[in-house]
Request: fold
Amino acid sequence: MKTVWVLTLVLHCALSEKFKVVGPGSPVVAVAGSAVVLPCSVRRSAGQSSLSAVDMNITWTRSDLGEALVHLYANQKDVNTRQIPQYRGRTAVFTEELQNGNVSLRLTDVKLHDEGDYKCLVESRFWEDEVSFNLRVEVIGERPVISVEKYDSNSEQFSLLCESKGWRPEPDLQLLNSKGENQTAGDPEIQRHTVLFNVKRRFTVHKNHIDTFYCRATLGEHKEEKEIRPIVFYDLLPMSTGAKVGIGFAVAVVLVLILAGIVYFKYKERPEKEELKRVILALEKPEEEQRNDCSVEMGLLKPEEEQRNDSSVTTALLKDLRKVPLQILRKRLRRLLKSRSGVLLCGKGLTEKSCAVLASALSSQNSNLTELDLSQNTLRNSEVKKLCEGLRSPNCKLKKLRLSYCRLTEESCADLASVLMVKNSPLRELDLSYNELQDSGVKKLCDGLRRENCKLETLKLSNCSITDEGCAELVKALKSNPSYLTELDLTANQLGPSGVEQLNILKNDRHYTLEKLQY
Reply:
């Protein structure tokens, strides 16, 4: 009786563990050099629900190689001592998926010799099942090459050759126009080199159907293509007499345009050259002489035609500079700026390019410039922006900057504020008097004044159309950063009693450093 009971128990266990191994119904396709998953799973015989394969043995073999071992999972670990050498280090089962019945094999760096018949065998204590399928390996070849072999003037047709190398199996070779339409083609020429294929195909295109064409090689979902543009066809067409005349005329027009361009740019650079010469002449004089000698100033501002007949030392230097190239003038100006501690360039008609040279000198490591007076120059926003690029440089040593009578705007104030925000900025004195800044410009400037990095000691804003509103912004900024400003000039503005009262309270408060206040 006991024997019958044991047999019944064994039979029950065997029936309860009965399962089916499921694989793909068609060959698996992989691309050489990539990774591929060989799908295989364990299902209960009674239905489609999965069954844990953690405690089962999973054996992957090559049927076409005499059941050679590809991968073995047994006793809950990989056991690959008998594995074929060509698969070493390239196979793995998904251990985390075994509990869901997934016994698929991952194969990396697929080789051509991996192609063949694979068997997935799954064994439990009481049951086993297997499935076999084929792995096909494809090789994606080189990008196609397309060329025009010849043009037949009788048929007015071009012969195109489209070819691609190194495929497996051979690809489909097509010629498509810009609309994606297939073109007339001859039979493909296929050459086999060992296990790879080279494919050629010829196409014809009429001269009236010249277009951008694409030579496309297709293998399954993989495509490689190369285009050929219309210019290649036109280069091969015979040239008519009319076309030759047309080309000759076009070349003549191009030459005329080039000459006109040269004349234009020479004429365009003349104002900049004259400006740089005036600036260099001003800097050739010591600063004190510039301030006291109005004859030098007047001489520099004369038109060049009048200076030609002037025998003064100033105009003699101007004559020496007349033939100097523009690039050399720029370099000379940079050297002069670097060698001076103070530069006075009042009323020199500076432009963006001169401001760029000034900015370059300010940002130079060798610059000694600590004082710069650009008053009475009409500076546009772009010119102030260029100048501020140099002022923000960590190499800048400038302590005093005067920009009175420069027609500065609200946007210029925003650029100057950015200079005040720079860490360790050396700027201590800023004169913006006689500019139509208004309250909006002052508000922009205050964005810099209220920052801790701002160490400005003197600020001159005389006759800048400031009202109580702008004054209130200044007071707020100085309260935010009370440690440095000692002198503030707001004379000739439209300040009311409210603005004056706020300023006096600030001046009389011992917590602030403001000592000299003018309004």
